[in-house]
Amino acid sequence: MKIPLKLADKDPMLVAQATKALEIMSDTPDAWELLVPLKDVDLDRVYGEVRELYRQAFDWDGRDADRPPYLGAGRSMRMHMREWITRWDLERLDPSYTADIEAQRLSADLTERQGMEGFSEDDSDEAQAANA
To answer: Do both 9 and 25 map to the same domain?
Structure first.
């Protein structure tokens, strides 16, 4: 958390807000991603609208007008959209192909790693004095 510490002298309120935001996100790493649970009715509506946009863009009707089923909860709208568009792309490019798409959630490790050449800041007293 080097950025808020460097701003401490300039804007203490900003540092307090950033620190609080980082604490909230670290306590619940995935809770903020799904603000509203997705309902089947909403997914069906969005599927139909996006499918129509895809149909118009590529002048392609596709095979299935119904949204493909999915197993498991916790999928974001982005995951659904990527699956649908990938499925349509594959089927449009090869009409004999039946897409079988598997999705899984990946989490990024955004912790700072010391020693990464060119990415770590120099915390030495000499570097701080040179920047002052």
So the answer is: yes
Of 115, 112, 46, give the one whose Cα is nearest residue 80.
46
> Which of 90, 86, 44, 99 has the alpha carbon at shortest distance from 67?
44
Is the domain of 3 the same as that of 23?
yes
AA letter at 58:
F
What domain range includes position 26?
A: 1-32
Helix (H, G, I), strand (E, B) or coil at 16: helix
Looking at the domain assignment, is residue 106 inside a domain? no
Residues 91-121 have pLDDT tens digits of 899 988 887 777 676 777 777 777 766 655 5
Query: Tokens representing 59?
Result: 């002048």
- Residue 56's pLDDT is what? 93
